Structure formats: structure tokens, C-alpha cells
């Protein structure tokens, strides 16, 4: 294959940024790429290379994209298609510092729109961003500076939001007694940048134990534990791991899904930032149990601290010889909610647009690079460590019959003490609200959004519902990603629903018609309803929304489109607008 | 070995490797298809061919889902028909479909699809046509993003990779790198993207000009089959003429040599025929 490459040449800074990822060039005349199979086999470095130039210069220029295409033997049109898919790449625009201000459903409760107005009036350039995963300390911003990369800032005010700083944030405050907690017990206690500190706390003993038990026994304990995935789909973990182990083929992969982007969700950020060695340990066990020799931790692009801590943890663990034959890498997302969907995440790692694939075939047999792949959410992986450490039966004894173990919830919005809370399955929503200090300023409860933008609104009748997979299913609510956003009774839900509808319109990958066009029509219809400018009667407009909800749910390729109407429909049923 | 399944209550046996769509066609069940093409790997994007499969929470795309032993498939349930109707409405509300393959009009009326229901303010993909040369036109207000042109240009046929999907969501669109004009891209002007385009978003310049002027009249056209004389490969050509002039050249999709594909010479090297003695 001889690809026609672009004539635009890269600058020295761009060249060295790309070479730092791909290595020095081995031969090209600048007109035709000579890489052959060896270069094409490196297509998975496309995103890392794009990140490298974006980090170094603040944009992806024609020269840089042309050079990357040349080096990887990816056609310039395809590389352009990939680069323009991700919100964090400034393709063909001027570089320079960027301020991203979160204006999503939690940050707006904390004055995000006022912040944006203040930036507008001072003439400061900024971009509005979907949820940045800092909901426990809203309102949030993220800065990008060429040469320095990204940094989070939260909470920000009208003064600090315009000033780019690179102060490192803590993983967040824990408002519970750490000695009573399992998944969170090392946060703020164990130094996340020190392997020694992790080992002192008992770290890597579980890995030793797993190797002594043997792979099949590890999977046996996981099956006995009843552990189900915490990312939203609640799939039994033992069965998933066993599926990968039993899949035919020598080349297998395991992936930690840290692309936490569901609005109102920040628990995985806390775990990755505060307990990165535990994520690494769990991944080594995952590889051992399934027979995978390569692992990836895919971290959302908006979590620079998590990415740095995990990369550091991997390096130290490797240097200490604890990885064995297992190879583990961090991969950064680049601003795309859809990449949290497992098949879209595979496409992203492979260097493609983050477009989901039809299932079946399922990841256990056809995952990343078309090979058998195990993929789990970060919280799930930390829970799997507990299973191996203490045995499946002990884990199964916690919680209810069908929902076992400890569970993290991200409580945010109109509560006194937003944060990550650990409870055992069976605790009610009301108990969670009490833990968080009740509704802010003594106000009354308005509504609760369970499971983030892809979730459902509930009213105070849901406060008594135990938060388990079975009870939420029975009551038509959801736990989803573990996001619980509270709204007080002063809330105007119109703008909240508008933001959610906008979110899905922005984040649809665009691949399938029901979602690509349906999310747009849903937003248009909702805006008409909220403005009392319905096409026909209010009933007509509601029927239109309900028809759109049905086609998106029935016919979209992936979970994004299938849940894009969920929050809006539930809010309409509750009469919130 | 064949696979046995049930479609609309009828038992059907289909060869291994059949899709649900293949099996449905075998029993004469007429399912609309838009992004599917016989010579292209199914992109599974338009979602107009959805059917109901027992045991599946959501509807299933018949074009790209392999038939499995014992599958119970229903193509005419309320849910499947509602989904198809809505997909057709959504498509027509966003893109200009009046030069689509002929059967689209039939589906619209069969399913009672009314794209006007989203109102006059519904955003569309409307944009000026790209007329960059004398060979062909990219009229992207007609594009439904079926991926066929990308796949024909790429791994399915031409391996040129001049175009790809860029952007995201409703802003997703077919583009060269940085939207450069085709002559500045990797395009080799084979026109194999035109051959697979189902909506007239990609068209030969002569045909597009006639359609714009309202002089294109398919019923007045003749198709003469011949073999391309430019080289020895032996591609079949369908020469489309109207009023004694060549207006388009295609190749049959079921031709074993071309699968509908041609090169720049076969597809476009005929304009001299009508240029007169002063040529």
C-alpha cells in the first residue's frame, strides 16, 4: 500500500513530540510512507502521537498530522477523521492555553453559568465542557497549556477560573470513618506515588496469594463472590473472566476502563488518583487469571492526575519486578464520553474513531484488536482484589443475595457534604442522603438523578428503595455508574433537562441514525416544549418525544443512544417540567 | 450444513454464514436497506433494516447480524415497523433524499413516514455542493452517512483512503484531510464512491448538471452494455445515453470482474465522444 502523504511539513517541536511516542524515523522521502506492515501495526499509537503534539503545541496542525500519518502509514484522511472525533484535540486551530469550564448539571448548581458570564465579560477565551468529574468540589475547570499538558482546578471562582494554574488537587475528601471502609480505606492514607507505602499497607500480598492459588481458583472465588460489574451493566465478573480464560487464542488482553465520563460520576477518579497501585495490582491478577499478557488502563483525558499516578505506579511496579511477564500501559482518552462504551474504547485504543461495534460478537472472544479481551470498570477491579484477598464466600456475605459486596456512590448536587460514599449493598437512597448531611441549607428535596445523564429522575418516594441491582430494576430506577445527583425544591428543571439533551447531542458518535439524528430531534422537541412553542399540542410534542425515545432505545447500536432519552422521559413522567 | 431459523412463523434453512437479511429474503420478506450494499461490508449504520429477534432486549440489524441456529425472527412487529418508520423520518428530516434509489419513496409511503413532523426548524445537513472539477460532484446535503463511499475508497475496494468520516455526532461528515479539495487529496478519481452512493450525494458532473437543470430523464435513457477498451482487464461498462448522448457510465454490481468498480478511464473517459469534430 503506497499512501499519498501530505505536503505540509512539521516543525521541529512537532517532529520531536511525535518521535517521542513512535521512535525516530527509519526512512521516508517525505512524499511516500515507507513503513509497511511494521508501521501499520503501530496504528494504536495514533492517539498517543496526537496527544504528544497537542500537549507540546496546543494544537494539531496540518504539518503534525501529516507527519503522524507518514510515520504510522495511516491515510491523512483517516487520521484527520480520528483527530476531529475527540474534543480535546485542537485540529487546525491556533494553539495556546485553553480553559475548559464545566457547565454540566452539577457545576451549574454551583454557579458555573455565572463563571462563564464573568469570563464572557472579561473577554477571556474558554470552552464549555461536559462534566469534568469533580462534582464533589464544583464548580470545576480544566486548564491546558502547551508544554505543561492538562490540570484540573476545583472549586474555581470568577477570579481563579481565568488564571491557569497547575496545582495538584487531592483525590477528594472522604466523609466517613476510614477504618469502617473497604474500597476507600487507602485513600489519603497510602502515598499514591510510593510503592513502598502501598506495600507497607499490605499491597501486592493479594497478587502473591493469587499466584499461589492458581488462575482457576481465582476465577472460582470470583464466581462464588457474586461480584457484578460496577460500570453500569452489572455483568457477573467470574463468568466474564472465565470467558476470556477459555477463549481460544494465545493473544489476549485485559483492560481497566477508567474513562469515567458519566455526568455526576467521580469515584473512579478518586480510586485512580488515590490508590493507583491497587489498580495495577488488580490488573496483574486479571492478566494472570485470564492468560492475557498485555493490559491497558484507559483513563479519560480529563483526568491528568490519575494518568500521571497510574503511569508512575506502573513504572515502579515494573522496576520492582512485580509485573512479571505482564505488560501494562496507560492510554489517555481525548474528550469523548462514548469511549467509556467498551467496544468504542477498543476502537480508540486501536487508533480509530471511538465508534461502538455491534455485539455479538462479545469482547470475551472479539475484543481489542479482534482478540479475546476482558474489560472492567476501575471500581470492579478494586472489588476483585477484595474477593481474592478474603475469599468469594466472605465477599458474598456482604450486601444482599443478588448484589454482593461494598459499593461506591458519587453523591453530589444539593447536599451538605458531596463526595464518594462507600456502603454495603442494601443501603437506601435516604441513608445515602443522610450520610451526605441532607439537602443543602436545610431546603427540601426536589428530585434525584440516579445513574447520571443516562439514568433516571426519581422523587422522594425513591428514598426508601434499597440501592441494589434487583431493587432498582424492580422500581424502574437505576444505579448506573453510581452517580446520585440531588436537586433541591428550588430547582428549575428546564435548564437541567436542556443540558442533558445537549450532552447526548454533543456526545453521540454519529455512527447510527437513531442516535445521531434522534438526539438532535429530542433536543429540538424538548426546547419547544420548555418554551411553550410546541408543534401542535403539548400532547403532540410529548408523543414526538416518546416516539424518538422508542426508536433510540430500540434501534441504536450502543448504550449511549439506548439511554439518551431515559432522563428526559423520566422527568416528564414525574412532571418536573 | 445449513442453519435453521424461524422467520415470521415460517421455518427457513439458510447456508452457514448467512445474515438475517439473507434468510429473510429467502422467504420473500421485504426489509428496507439503505447503508447495505451487496459489494460493501455492512456498516450497520442506518438502522433501517431492524428486526425483532426473540431473546434480544433491543432490535437487531438484519444486514450485519449472522443468522444463528434456532433464531426466532419477526420482521413485521409493531416495534420493528415503528423503528423503521422513525428512522426513515429522521433520515428525510436531515438529508435531501429526492435523488435516492427509487425504492425509498415506496418505503416512505409503506411505513407512513412523515419527515415534516419535526417542523420547519429541524436542522439539516444542508450545505452547498462541492463542484471542484469536470468529473464529479459531492452534494453532501444528500448524504446520510452510510459509510459506503468510505469503504469503497478504502478496504472494501480501492485502497486509496482519500475520504473518511470526520467530526462527531450530527456534525460527522465525509471529508478529505482538512477538507482539502479532491485534486489535492489522495483521490484517484475512480468514482467507485459514486457507484455505491444510495442518495445521489456523489454523482458524475454531467448527470448532476442535468439533474440540477431538470433535464435528467431516466425513462428516456437507454443502457448499452459493452467492454471497456482502455486496457485488457475486460471491465463491463453500462453506457447510459439520453437523446443520443452519453450521460453516465457505470459497471454492473454483479459483474465478476468489477463488482461495479471502474477506474478513472472507464468511468470518466467518454466525454470526448460527445464533444464533436472540433473536440
Question: How does this structure look, described?
Answer:
The complex is a heterodimer of chains A (about 575) and B (about 280). Helix content of chain A is about 40%, strand content about 10%. Chain A has helices spanning about 10-20, 35-40, 45-55, 60-70, 75-85, 110-120, 195-200, 205-215, 215-225, 235-245, 265-275, 275-290, 305-320, 340-350, 380-390, 390-395, 430-435, 470-475, 495-505, 515, 520-530, 540-555, 560-565, 565-575; strands at about 100, 125-130, 140-145, 150-155, 255-260, 295-300, 325-330, 375, 405-415, 420-425, 445-450, 455-460, 485-490. Chain A has a 5-stranded mixed β-sheet with strand order 10-9-13-11-12. In chain A, strands 2-1-3-4 form a 4-stranded mixed β-sheet. A 4-stranded parallel β-sheet of chain A has the order 7-6-5-8, with helices on both faces. In chain A, helix 13 links the parallel strand 6 (about 295-300) and strand 7 (about 325-330). In chain A, helix 9 packs antiparallel against helix 10. The relative contact order of chain A is 0.10. Chain B has 2 domains: about 1-125, Roll (Ubiquitin-like (UB roll)), CATH 3.10.20.740; about 130-275, Alpha-Beta Plaits (2-Layer Sandwich). The interface between A and B is large, with 55 and 48 residues.
Strand order of the largest sheet of chain B: 2-1-5-3-4
Strand residues, percent of chain A: 5-15%
CATH architecture of the largest domain in chain A: 3-Layer(aba) Sandwich
CATH topology call of the largest domain in chain A: Rossmann fold
Number of domains of chain A: 5
Structural class of chain A: alpha/beta
Biggest interface, CB < 8 A = A-B, 55 and 48 residues
Give the CATH superfamily of the largest domain in chain A. Answer: NADH-ubiquinone oxidoreductase 51kDa subunit
Q: CATH fold name of the largest domain in chain B, please? A: Alpha-Beta Plaits
The CATH architecture of the largest domain in chain B would be 2-Layer Sandwich
Q: How many β strands of chain A by DSSP?
A: 13
**What is the CATH C level class of the largest domain in chain A, in words?**
Alpha Beta
- Average pLDDT number of chain B: 95
Provide the β-strand percentage band of chain B: 15-25%
Rounded to the nearest angstrom, the radius of gyration of chain B is 20 Å
| Total helical elements of chain B | 7
Mean of pLDDT of chain A: 95
> Roughly how many Å apart are the termini of chain A?
57 Å
Count of runs of 4 or more consecutive helical residues of chain A: 24
